[in-house]
C-alpha cells in the first residue's frame, strides 16, 4: 500500500472508533468496514495500523477471549488523545488523514 493509503486507513479507523465512542469495536468489524468500501486491507496490515495508533496513544486495545466458544479477538476504542486529534484540538499527525 502507498503512504497515502496508509494515512487514509488510519484515519478511517479513528473515524469508525469515534462513531462508536465510548464503546469498543472488534478488529473484525473494522476489517469488514474496509471490505464494505471495496478497500481490502489484510488482517496483518490492519493489526499493524491499530498497533501504530495504539503506540501513538490515539486508541486503546484489549484482547478478548471466550474459551467456551473458542473465540479470540482484539477490540479497540478511541482514547482521549484520539478524540482531540479528530476534533482538531491537537496538532495534526502527518501519518494520519483525518476524516470527518
What is the second-level CATH architecture?
Answer: Orthogonal Bundle
Strand order of the largest sheet: 1-3-2
Mean pLDDT: 95
**Low-confidence segments, ≥5 residues, pLDDT <50?**
none
How does the helix and strand content classify structurally?
alpha+beta
Helix fraction? 40-55%
The CATH homologous superfamily name equals: Winged helix-like DNA-binding domain superfamily/Winged helix DNA-binding domain
Q: What would the principal axes of the Cα set say about the shape?
A: globular
Count of the domains? 1
Span of the ends, CA to CA: 22 Å
* Individual helix count: 4
Word description of this protein:
The chain is an alpha+beta fold and 100 residues long. It has a single domain, classed as Arc Repressor Mutant, subunit A, CATH 1.10.10. Helix content is 49%, strand content 18%. The protein is built from four helices and three strands, in the order H-E-H-H-E-E-H. Strands 1-3-2 form a three-stranded antiparallel β-sheet. Strand 2 and strand 3 (71-78) form a beta hairpin. Helix 1 (3-20) packs across helix 3. It is globular, with a radius of gyration of 13 Å. The two termini are 22 Å apart. The relative contact order is 0.23. The model has no long low-confidence stretch (mean pLDDT 95).
Can you lay out the helices and strands and say which pair or pack?
Layout: H1 3-20, E1 25-26, H2 27-36, H3 43-55, E2 59-66, E3 71-78, H4 80-87
Antiparallel strand pairs: 1-3, 2-3
Helix pairs in contact: 1-3
Amino acid at each position: 500500500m502507498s503512504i497515502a493509503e496508509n494515512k487514509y486507513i488510519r484515519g478511517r479507523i479513528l473515524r469508525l472508533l469515534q462513531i462508536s465512542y465510548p464503546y469498543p469495536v472488534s478488529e473484525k468489524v473494522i476489517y469488514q468496514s474496509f471490505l464494505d468500501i471495496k478497500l481490502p486491507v489484510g488482517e496483518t496490515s490492519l493489526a499493524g495500523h491499530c498497533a501504530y495508533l495504539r503506540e501513538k496513544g490515539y486508541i486503546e486495545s484489549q484482547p478478548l477471549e471466550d474459551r467456551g466458544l473458542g473465540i479470540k479477538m482484539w477490540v479497540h476504542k478511541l482514547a482521549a488523545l484520539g478524540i482531540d486529534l479528530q476534533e482538531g484540538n491537537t496538532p495534526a499527525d502527518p501519518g494520519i488523514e483525518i476524516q470527518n
